[in-house]
Amino acid sequence: MPRVVILKTGTTYPTLRETFGDFDSWFVARLAPELNVHVVDVTVDDLPGLPEAWDGIVVTGSPAMVSDREPWSERTAGWLADAVRAEVPVLGVCYGHQLLAHALGGEAGFHPGGRETGTHQVELLDTAREDPLFKGLPRQFPVQLTHRQSVLRLPESAVLLGRNEFEPHQAFRVGPCAWGVQFHPEFSSEVMRAYLKVQAPDLSKEGLDAEALLATVVDAPAASSLLDRFSQVVMNR
User: Fold this and answer.
1) Which terminus of the chain is more solvent-facing, meaning fewer CB atoms within 10 Å of its CB: N or C?
2) Catalytic machinery residues
């Protein structure tokens, strides 16, 4: 069985964890059952050997900020850069997306427009039409999002694949098989609603309408399909 490691870079709100489990369990549930999946919490544990020892790598979201450059995060960034050079399939999500860009010479930091959260549309570019991960997906589809930091500048070698009006770098690829996505393919609509309910006091302070955002949450099957698609990339390689 192909071996995939999930690099866990943080943990969700306690109330969500009690009801839905933690970040890693959401990924495990959506990755193909044919994969032999391991979880390593890189905030407290050693990195999992050489990247080449794995057939695929997934990097989760986190409440941490890439721009803080915590020692564990910087070590993980260097490890991911080695993984990309070795052409091991990588999928970075939210924090993982930003960390991958940072690792390869891009820049991550606070989005000048503030927070993006809830269900929003993402538009794929022409570059996604023949992309191994995105090929065949609709030109536009809903995704679940919650982030305050973004990829402010892509690595020079990156291919931009997706964007929306708020966030110009929703998805990118570097090399043949390393992807970053700002949105959350692992989120269900129930998880997204739970996030918005926890965030509601902060959203009000930031001038966002939590009730309106809750009312527009919908399922995002095209986005969720990326985890099965990534599984297929791993198995095909």
Assistant:
1) N
2) 94, 184, 186
